[in-house]
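Hi,

I'm pasting everything inline rather than attaching a file, because the server keeps stripping attachments. The sequence lines come first, and each chain or strand is labelled.
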Amino acid sequence: EDQVTQSPEALRLQEGESSSLNCSYTVSGLRGLFWYRQDPGKGPEFLFTLYSAGEEKEKERLKATLTKKESFLHITAPKPEDSATYLCAVQAAGSARQLTFGSGTQLTVLP
Amino acid sequence: DAMVIQNPRYQVTQFGKPVTLSCSQTLNHNVMYWYQQKSSQAPKLLFHYYDKDFNNEADTPDNFQSRRPNTSFCFLDIRSPGLGDAAMYLCATSRELLVQETQYFGPGTRLLVL
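And the predicted assembly:
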């Protein structure tokens, strides 16, 4: 059974304090790993897709990396507007419809 | 802007009273999904449509049904809502039903059952 574990569950940072969120996964034949941002009371907003180990993608203060067992979302010099829950999801081979989500990391950036 | 739209954003219903949630998309995507997300939990896939083909997840309760009258619209019907059905309901779309296709989510409908 595909599993996704995100850590930590919650993270509080001071503005400008860089850190990383972790997404560990167990999946038979990874086809894609997706990062989403979810603000309170809203739907997930797509950030990145990673397809193979060693791949990296960047967007503003966010950088996502992928290994064979986990993905990291690095946040450099975060701002209060980066506060949100960050969700990781994996897609396995032969399962085009199914995204297996982690429970998310709730990030709070204090001014 | 092309997007996924959900109405209403908040819905209050009574225990056992049928309720319908609506989703529309301007992306012209072939696939539409419905997820249930309870507080601080991961979204859980209920079912999806590929064009007009309906696919139910094995553990989706019979109380949940869906309709897709055309490419743009999809509805979630809850026939007899229970207190445990209070949740955020998310609609998502993808261009095709292929691996590596990104799913794009709407803003969600928060359902409260009294």
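Chain A has no helices and eleven strands.

If the labels don't parse on your end, tell me and I'll reformat.
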